[in-house]
């Protein structure tokens, strides 16, 4: 059975979808079969990022409604072998219920090494649906007070649902910007603000932003792609030390 990881945050705009895409690609490059599930009903973007928007006909709501078979609604990424997408519903009212999501992901996990669920921002129905099948959670935050405060609220919501296997990903990290701010004196202060153990720091990387906009592969040797590779290795049980933040 494949590992099911939900990627969530306390607020929008922190780069969850980029993280899901980059991590999925890094896992696929390790020879794994990876399915991304877009949980952001009505505001999906993974179909663009994986370059399947033009081919997309069906989404997860069509499968639930009986209008399509699962194999009809899962699309291979055009630029990364081994990575696939099950798209979000085009209408917000078609959010999959938590019970159905759990059953669906349980069935799909027999065919993939990793399932990554891209959770919508906030703590509403989309959040509850996305985390219903989670075995572990990556909580994504940028190192700013508002995002970290919302991240702490998300951590508490996860724990109320019994999800304690969560790890923090600090995304879009800029060493220069961090040293110039006056709120947090160290990375430990950032971690303490959320109350979740750190698993990765992903640097601010213009090459990732460009690849996302153009719906193409992330440059393998860019700082961001290398960070995704280290995160993928940690999720697979390897002991990979954190890179010195001075490089970022």
Automatic annotation (TrEMBL):
* Superkingdom assignment: Bacteria
Which Pfam family is an annotated match for this chain, by its short name?
A: CbiA
Please give one Gene Ontology molecular function term for this protein. ATP hydrolysis activity
Keywords of this protein's UniProt record, alphabetized? ATP-binding, Nucleotide-binding
Q: Which residue spans traverse the membrane?
A: none
Protein name per the record: AAA family ATPase
Keyword ATP-binding assigned to the entry: answer is yes
* GO biological processes: negative regulation of cell division
Q: InterPro entries annotated for this entry?
A: CobQ/CobB/MinD/ParA_Nub-bd_dom (IPR002586), P-loop_NTPase (IPR027417), ParA/MinD_ATPase (IPR050625)
Lineage summary: Bacteria, Bacillati, Bacillota, Clostridia, Eubacteriales
Record PANTHER family: SEPTUM SITE-DETERMINING PROTEIN MIND HOMOLOG, CHLOROPLASTIC, SEPTUM SITE-DETERMINING PROTEIN MIND HOMOLOG, CHLOROPLASTIC-RELATED
Q: List cellular component terms (GO).
A: cytoplasmic side of plasma membrane; cytosol
Instruction: Indicate the segments forming the CobQ/CobB/MinD/ParA nucleotide binding domain, all copies.
Output: 6-214
């Amino acid at each position: 059975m494949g590992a099911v990881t939900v990627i969530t945050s306390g607020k929008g705009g922190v780069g969850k979808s980029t993280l899901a895409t980059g991590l999925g690609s890094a896992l696929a490059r390790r020879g794994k079969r990876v399915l991304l599930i877009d949980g952001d009903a009505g505001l999906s973007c993974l179909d663009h990022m994986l370059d399947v928007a033009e081919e997309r006909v069906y989404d997860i709501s069509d499968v639930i409604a009986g209008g399509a078979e699962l194999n009809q609604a899962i699309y291979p990424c055009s630029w990364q072998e081994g990575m696939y997408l099950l798209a979000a519903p085009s209408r917000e009212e078609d959010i999959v219920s938590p019970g159905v999501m759990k059953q669906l992901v349980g069935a799909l996990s027999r065919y993939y090494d990793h399932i990554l669920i891209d959770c919508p921002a906030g703590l509403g129905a989309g959040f509850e649906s996305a985390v219903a099948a989670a075995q572990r959670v990556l909580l994504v935050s940028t190192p700013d007070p508002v995002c970290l405060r919302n991240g702490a609220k998300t951590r508490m919501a996860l724990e109320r649902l019994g999800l304690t296997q969560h790890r923090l990903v600090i995304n879009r990290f800029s060493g220069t910007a961090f040293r110039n701010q006056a709120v947090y004196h160290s990375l430990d202060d950032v971690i303490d603000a959320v109350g979740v153990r750190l698993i990765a720091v992903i640097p601010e990387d213009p090459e990732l932003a460009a690849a996302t906009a153009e719906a193409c592969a992330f440059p393998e040797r860019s700082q961001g792609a290398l960070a995704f590779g280290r995160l993928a290795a940690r999720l697979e049980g390897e002991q990979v030390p954190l890179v010195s933040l001075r490089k970022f």
